[in-house]
Amino acid sequence: MVQRRDERLESGNGGRPVAFITGASSGFGLLIALELARKGYRVIAAMRDISNSGLLTLRAREGGLEGLIECLTLDVTDRQAIQDAANYVIGTYERVDVLVNNAGMAIGGCIEEIPMDDWEKQMEVNFFGVVAMTRAFLPLMREQRHGKIIMISSISGRMGFPGYGPYAASKFAVEGFSESLRLEMLPFGVHVVLVEPGAYRTDIWSKGFRHMDSRQSERSPYSRFLAAVLRYSHHTAQNADDPQDVARAVGRIVLSQYPRLRYPLGKGAALTILGKTMLPWKWFERILLRELEKEAGRTEP
């Protein structure tokens, strides 16, 4: 059953392009929904709990966009709900021009201490949810012979940072999936794009930090190391970029006739990727571990 909420939704579509966005109740998803509505898209803003649509609805009303945004209940780990949502949108609007796979979560901690249930949960949301969402709309986009599928990936899809093994694994999987999918879909006029943000001020990291905090134990052999990772991460988050920059980038991508595969965004993202590519791995890991060692020293009394 599809649960929807709209604010004075305009009848008919009037030929407007349609964008479907997952994880739209906050963070990047909320900002992307508003950005695409400003560009004239009919936006289907999907979220796990529609009761969390208040902020998006308020921002839309303030911007005079409420007639262009429809909120829809969708848990990306529920295969039947995904198919029901796709059927509803296709049946209602008869087109989908942009799919933004944004829904995600971050599980942190040291790999030895993370239960397998958490690994499975991470992959189910960040990877298998993306695959299921994409497959639900591929037949329509292929038949339309146009469309853009935008994956909100991460710099962690190009570089596995310590303390974020499950998150990095899920984003690496998304990157490989997207490369294959792009090559399959280009002959049909469908463009697959990876947006790779570095550190931005969004809720996903505050939730991830709380998850990592809960794993800290003085008895753990990783306690000093994990404390250093957390300290470094908090410092990075405090100096992070404005997430609106990511929404603006997505707005430019949807209007691009031939967008490229990857868009690294944010402070140091492109430099980090270049460093990993150009430097010998031993040099790169030495630099990173040295920084963490400095943080570990600061956490000691």
Protein described:
This protein is an alpha/beta fold. The protein has a single domain, classed as NAD(P)-binding Rossmann-like Domain (Rossmann fold). Helices cover 52% and strands 13% of the residues. The protein has ten helices and eight strands. Strand 5 (98-101), helix 4 and strand 6 form a beta-alpha-beta unit. Helix 4 runs parallel beside helix 5 and helix 7 (223-238) packs across helix 10 (281-299). It is globular, with a radius of gyration of 20 Å. The protein starts with a strand and ends with a helix.
* Oligomerization status of the protein chains: single chain
Main sheet overview:
8 strands, mixed
CATH superfamily: NAD(P)-binding Rossmann-like Domain
Whole-number radius of gyration?
20 Å
Which keywords apply here?
301 residues, Rossmann fold, alpha/beta, 52% helix, 8-stranded mixed sheet
